[in-house]
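Ops channel
N.P.: pipeline sanity check, posting one input/output pair.
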């Protein structure tokens, strides 16, 4: 079983048909996809547990990342365009393993914020709402 290092992992936004890495990323919160369920309890259920059933649909979740923000950097300006002109965007996370595994997804919504703190550099934070579910990485080693 391989342990994949994180340093060297990158998130990239597709700009003009080319994936462009977002500079100065500190951390990435990977999407938390989940199968959609509904409560399927009935009045005659005497069990204390609440039963759930799958709807057959899945929610892609959101992917977030934190970065040192540079308002003059072209790539960071491109992020602000997703707020000014909302649009679907293609994203890709490339992991730092020897296989160079990637995790691709389409973003349907975008959130951008920042933090100014006394003992730190100017930081930005972003959250991408997924459209559908991500394309999970293949490759790497198996147990």
């Amino acid at each position: 079983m391989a342990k994949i290092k994180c340093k060297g992992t990158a998130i990239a936004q597709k700009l003009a048909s080319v994936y462009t890495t977002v500079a100065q990323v500190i951390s990435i919160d990977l999407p938390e996809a989940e199968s959609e369920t509904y409560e399927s309890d009935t009045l005659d259920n005497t069990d204390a547990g609440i039963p759930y059933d799958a709807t057959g649909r899945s929610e892609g979740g959101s992917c977030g990342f934190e970065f040192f923000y540079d308002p003059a950097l072209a790539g960071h300006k491109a992020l602000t365009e997703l707020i000014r002109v909302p649009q679907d965007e293609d994203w890709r996370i490339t992991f730092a393993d020897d296989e160079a595994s990637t995790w691709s997804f389409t973003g349907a919504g975008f959130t951008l914020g920042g933090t100014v703190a006394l003992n730190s550099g100017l930081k930005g934070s972003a959250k991408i709402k997924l459209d559908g579910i991500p394309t999970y990485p293949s490759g790497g080693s198996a147990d």
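N.P.: looks fine end to end. The radius of gyration is 19 Å.
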